[in-house]
Amino acid sequence: MTGDHQTLALLLFSAFVAVTLAITTRAGRRRRGSAEESSTGGRLFSPMENGFALSGDYLSAASFLGVSGLIALNGYDGMLYSVGFLVAWLVVLLLVAELVRNCGRFTLADVVAARMGERRVRTAVGASSVTVSVLYLVAQMVGAGSLVSLLLGGTGDAARSWTVLGVGALMVVHVALGGMRATTWIQIVKAVLLLAGALALTVLVLLRFHGDFSALLTTAAERSGHGRDFLAPGLGHGGDWTARADFISLGLALVLGTAGLPHLLARFSTVPTAGSARRSVVWSIGLIGGFYLMTIVLGFGAAAIVGSDAVRASDPAGNTAVPLLALDLGGGAGSTGGTVLLAVVAAVAFATILAVVAGITLASSTSVAHDLYTSYTRGRDGGAGRRRYGEVAVARISTVVVGGTAVGLALLARDLNVAFLVGLAFAVAASANLPVLLYSLFWRRFTTRGAVWSVYGGLVPAVLLVALSPVVSGSPDALFPGADFHVFPLRNPGVVSIPLGFLAGWLGTVTSPEPPDEAKHAETEVRALTGAGAV
Amino acid sequence: MDDWEGRDAAATRGEDPWRDVLASEWGGPDAVTAPGGTAAPAGREPPEAAAMGVPVPRPPGTAADGERRPSAAEVYLEVQRSPAFQEVRGRYRRFVGPATLAFLTWYLGYVVAATAAPGLMSRPVLGAVNVAMVAGLGQFATTFALAWAYARHARVHRDRAALDLRWETQQMTREARVDR
């Protein structure tokens, strides 16, 4: 890229950041400063608005850059992500959305604690929520890093590191000042931008092939260097049994993880009723499904137009496939059209990253303030007398801490594919958060011990298995490529840790000395299905 | 004894959550106020007036004159045992159970087939489109279809009954002893 084109790209990007911050300040001015307002945005968003916001929260850089990149590199195997990310929403729609809207106040822990009413349950769920959020944040920031190094034209590691730091700082400020309402608006703006950007590129790709999807696939297969194998499963995850088990593990994590993502569950508190929660999920299924269909076209399009080798040369993990595709569609490197399109795509992707980072940071800081901090400082009587700081203040402090942790990890993880990193976050969410949530909502005999066991029984194995996997050590692209302490062969722990989470919850419940609380179960069930007493 | 209109009107007069429910559940554009704005209460009658036309199932031994009022916990147990609630729960479970089983099986079958039977999956169907591609796009189609079916089922078979129960339950908990 020439200097002029870089300036143009940076100008576009800066304009977007300015707009998002303007929205934040506008929304922030109306803020009343209560914890309720800060974490729910007043609960008055419409289903359509919340549907867009859910899509905005969900369609991360991982989808836009990572999934298309994986399809461009591995062909059909990349499509599994698209399918898994979408089907997961059925779990949210059928089993979670309405019931959580009716039972929850701010966070996942509220739903569980409503039935168990004990501090250690809240602490456990809060801890696992924060863990999931940090992992998810890392993925987003890695995406931001690889995007900027492309935009600035290979200025290398320093630019990446500064971007990661910059994104982190920006979002910390954003969330601390704007709260849920500003964050929701950011998600809506971003979802519209992202869908429009993806749609424009998809149309351009299809026009290039005169609307012939089959011709697109054939060209992609030819230019990938793999021939017909490119269009069939097995390229990314074929071969030995470990790779295949990894694929299944990932598939399981993708479909079950979404319903345990704290920042999505928090979204259901922004609408007034269960019915609107349901309709916002239907909206988001439509938007997200349409988007992932487009990523398939974009991924194969990148393979067909840019070529898999060129994608791999730019970024071995494939994260830059879509920006390269945009450059090519606009007329190639050095042309003004190409540069403008690249700059637009980069700005949209950046917007995506900023927005998702904001959403997750908000959810995790709410978890820290609302679940961890209040449960430690609240006396047995439930009074708030011993608290030195308000919930909102603690949320702001924890925003900084969570953001800082994620920035640090992102600097270590910058060579991994972002979709893959998101897969890890999903595995932890599915192992630690989903079992306790489903048990609380549906199982009459579930007890406090069961709740605590199921959270730790999923969280600890999931995190431990990732730490002992080839992702962290013992492979060239690991976090610590120099060391080798990997014992667990799979890169995604889902297939082991998700059943463990469910098993631990069951085991904790049946060995529990206390009898299940029938009245609390009745209350949860009645409230979940009717909405009685919902705030 | 009671008609829908009366019930709706009664609920609309309240100052709290039901208002939104009614506005957004039953047809028409969603009545969502601008962020920050508060919805003004529609009526000025005291809540007792709103409660009058509504048949509240009272647990045995709970007369309206308040000889013995149940605690909130007892109210929830009572509602949970009521046939109306069991019906709502049954409708929900009878749809969600089989549907969840079906889509999870279909999805896991797809993933396992992609790993275990690449030969089958790479069989061409039409042009460059093969079985794997059809199955993948089929996942999209079934997801959209099931989401639509679920939303429709909930709207037609569950929403109104659930709303009635919500109304009644809240009425009962409001009258309940404060002992928690």
TrEMBL record, chain A:
TM regions (residue ranges): 6-24, 52-73, 79-100, 121-139, 159-179, 191-209, 247-268, 280-306, 340-363, 393-412, 418-439, 451-472
Chief site of localization: membrane
Family: Belongs to the sodium:solute symporter (SSF) (TC 2.A.21) family.
Protein name, per record: Cation acetate symporter
Any one GO biological process: plasma membrane acetate transport
Cross-referenced InterPro entries: Na/Glc_symporter_sf (IPR038377), Na/solute_symporter (IPR001734), Sodium:Solute_Symporter (IPR050277)
Cellular-component GO terms for this entry: plasma membrane
Coiled coil: none
This protein's UniProt keywords: Cell membrane, Membrane, Symport, Transmembrane, Transmembrane helix, Transport
PROSITE patterns documented for this protein: NA_SOLUT_SYMP_3 (PS50283)
PANTHER family hit by this protein: CATION_ACETATE SYMPORTER ACTP, SODIUM/PROLINE SYMPORTER-RELATED
GO MF: acetate transmembrane transporter activity; symporter activity
Localization in the cell: Cell membrane
Lineage, uppermost ranks: Bacteria, Bacillati, Actinomycetota, Actinomycetes, Kitasatosporales
Lineage: superkingdom: Bacteria
Membrane topology value: Multi-pass membrane protein
Automatic annotation (TrEMBL), chain B:
Top-rank lineage group of the source organism: Bacteria
One matching Pfam family: DUF485
Biased composition (Basic and acidic residues): 1-19
Low complexity bias: start-end ranges: 27-51
Residue ranges, annotated region (Disordered): 1-68
Keywords: Membrane, Transmembrane, Transmembrane helix
Chain ranges passing through the membrane: 95-117, 129-151
InterPro entries hit by this protein: DUF485 (IPR007436)
Protein known as: Membrane protein
Organism listed in the record: Streptomyces roseolilacinus
